[in-house]
Design a protein that fits this description.
Helix content: 25-40%
Distance between the termini: 10 Å
Radius of gyration: 18 Å
Bound molecules: ligand FO1
Strand order of the largest sheet: 5-2-1-9-10-13-14
Low-confidence stretches: none
Strand content: 15-25%
Structural class: alpha/beta
Number of strands: 14
């Protein structure tokens, strides 16, 4: 079997680790959002790629979910004293990854090559594929105009009102050619933010059609549980977009693409409404606080699609 797992951000990476624990590298491929990427301090920052890499390498900061555990901050402190930009926190060990990626990219390597060289050096044997090797940049449209994603998410702490999203470059970016569409037996959309972690992936020219053309089941896991997002601005964005902050509303967002929708047990009452959208609906424990929860959810999803 070959599973394709679409992921972005911290929430998606949790389930991705669950799949990496239960499936060998030849049976699963991770496609990760690069819409959050940006050039900063002369570095190519690729947050969702790095969050997934660190998570699969089991060196991720367990509290923040991004960056590395046991990190030191002398670079940031020293930069601060020079009056440099320190709103985007780069730990000393994390900085090495960014500098090395810069070296690889400047040597003409693709983002995919750089990602997999770095991942294998960190002991990750699973394949991590950026959704495209061409730039796609998510912008959050606010009443004062579009904001670069990291300015919205980190510098402005998700405070601006989101009225829409743009994925600059998505229509001209080409799909990562390494995605094995022809041999897929199932596709999972991990519980990431639908608007700024999943939609950028689906916006890459040809992605939706390629996923649908596989004829494989497409399972989405709800990132909303009991009307709340486990982490991040998903619910706030839904409120600002005038969408109910419910798991059914997320299912509607994916209608026309997904064949299965996984909701948490607390949202059992939403089952009928989601099923009415024409999706197979499963009720599982989707809140993952332990590694066991992650592997168990991964196993339950594999049961669902077998
Ligand atoms: N998120 C923050 O809220 N504050 C930060 O200072 C920050 C730094 C950072 C550095 C490297 C990295 O890979 C991720 C980082 N993130 C930070 C998270 C990042 O902005 C988000 O994870 C994604 O862009 C959205 O999931």
């Amino acid at each position: 079997m070959t599973l394709l797992a679409l992921t972005g951000g911290v929430g998606g990476a949790k389930l991705a680790l669950g799949f990496a624990k239960v499936l060998p590298p030849e049976d699963v491929v991770f496609v990760v959002n690069t819409g959050d990427d940006f050039e900063h301090l002369g570095l190519h920052i690729s947050p969702d790629v790095d969050t997934l890499t660190y998570t699969l390498a089991e060196v991720a900061n367990p509290v923040a979910g991004w960056g590395r555990k046991d990190e030191t901050w002398r670079f940031m402190d020293a930069l601060e004293r020079f009056g440099g930009e320190t709103w985007f926190r780069l730990g000393d060990a994390d900085l090495a990854l960014h500098l090395h990626r810069r070296t690889l990219l400047d040597a003409g390597r693709s983002l995919t090559d750089a990602t997999n060289e770095i991942a294998s050096r960190l002991g990750v044997n699973h394949t991590i594929l950026p959704m495209s090797d061409h730039p796609v940049r998510t912008r959050v449209v606010t009443p004062d105009g579009p904001l670069a994603f990291q300015h919205y998410f980190v510098r402005d702490r998700c405070e601006p009102k989101a009225v829409g999203f743009e994925f600059a470059g998505a229509e001209t970016a080409s799909l990562n050619p390494a995605i094995p569409f022809e041999s897929l037996t199932a596709i999972v959309i991990c519980p990431s933010n639908p608007f700024v972690s999943v939609d950028p992936i689906l916006a890459v020219n040809g992605m939706r059609d390629a996923l649908l053309a596989t004829g494989a089941p497409i399972v989405a896991v709800s990132p909303i549980v009991g009307g709340r997002a486990i982490k991040g601005p998903t619910a706030k964005m839904m409120r600002e977009l005038g969408i109910p902050t419910t798991t059914e509303a997320v299912a509607k967002h994916y209608a026309g693409l997904v064949t299965h929708f996984v909701i948490d047990k607390v949202d059992e009452c939403a089952r009928a409404e989601v099923a009415a959208l024409g999706m197979e609906t499963a009720t599982l424990q989707t809140v993952m606080t332990t590694l066991d929860h992650r592997t168990q959810l991964a196993r339950s999803i594999l049961e669902l699609i077998r």
